[in-house]
Write a structure and sequence with these properties.
This protein has 5 helices and 9 strands, in the order E-H-E-E-E-H-E-E-E-E-E-H-H-H. By secondary structure, it is α/β, with parallel strands linked by helices. It has a single domain, classed as Collagenase (Catalytic Domain). It has a 5-stranded mixed β-sheet, sandwiched between helices. A 4-stranded mixed β-sheet has the order 3-4-6-7. A hairpin with a 5-residue loop joins strand 8 and strand 9. Helix 1 packs across helix 3. The longest helix is centred in the last third of the chain and has 19 residues. The two termini are 23 Å apart.
């Protein structure tokens, strides 16, 4: 598996920001937990998005569980409704990623690990099915953290117009189950890296220096 940065974020200096605080006043990506999501996984996701996407990431104040998206018939939460709610956030961040512990679905699939607005503002990741192996036993904490980071990276990349990739060694490859997710690397292929750089230019977003 690819190494995941499990360290909490530390002071990082950004040009033009007030460094008396540990985070920039406004990053490009805002990460918010909705409901029962641990602080450790929140910090790990934020740290890895910032490191791999090379974008300043802010941790936003927590919000309540998205009960407005609950579907009684399916006993799951509608991902599209959560995305709509996140996209309407008054926060100034161009991209918003929500982390939830509830099980997500879209009408055409039994469940999803995450969902995003293609070329839009919002993405969401569910921790619900990432804690277990396909037969139901629990995975290690390191594996869990890595899965969450991979799904988060994949979904946020969709908001920058990246589509699914056919390259075996790319985070944008489709994963049909947890075992597929475990095989994915924690990086983009050279083509998706180029597409991402072009998206930053198109959206007038300046990435952090290497």
């Amino acid at each position: 598996m690819s190494p995941v940065n499990t360290r909490a974020r530390t002071l990082t200096k950004y040009p033009g920001t007030n460094n008396s605080t540990s985070l920039p006043t406004q990053g490009v990506v805002g990460v918010v937990r909705l409901g029962a999501v641990g602080e450790a996984v929140l910090n790990i996701v934020a740290a890895n998005l910032q490191e791999i996407l090379r974008l300043p990431v802010d941790i936003l104040p927590p919000r309540q569980s998205p009960e407005f998206a609950y579907n009684e018939r399916r006993k799951q939460y509608h991902a599209a409704l959560i995305l709509k709610n996140l996209a309407e956030s008054l926060r100034p961040h161009p991209r918003i990623l929500g982390l939830v512990s509830v099980d997500l679905f879209i009408p055409v699939l039994t469940h999803v690990f995450g969902e995003a607005q293609m070329g839009g503002r919002a993405a969401v990741v569910s921790l619900h099915r990432l804690k277990q192996k396909e037969e139901g036993s629990r995975v290690s904490l390191d594996t869990f953290y890595e899965r969450v980071v991979k799904v988060a990276l994949h979904e946020v990349a969709h908001t920058f117009d990246l589509v699914h990739c056919n390259q075996a060694e790319c985070i944008m490859r489709i994963s049909s189950g947890p075992s597929d997710l475990d095989e994915l690397p924690l990086f983009f292929c050279e083509y998706c890296e180029a597409f991402l750089a072009e998206a930053y230019r198109r959206y007038d977003i300046q990435s952090l220096p290497l």
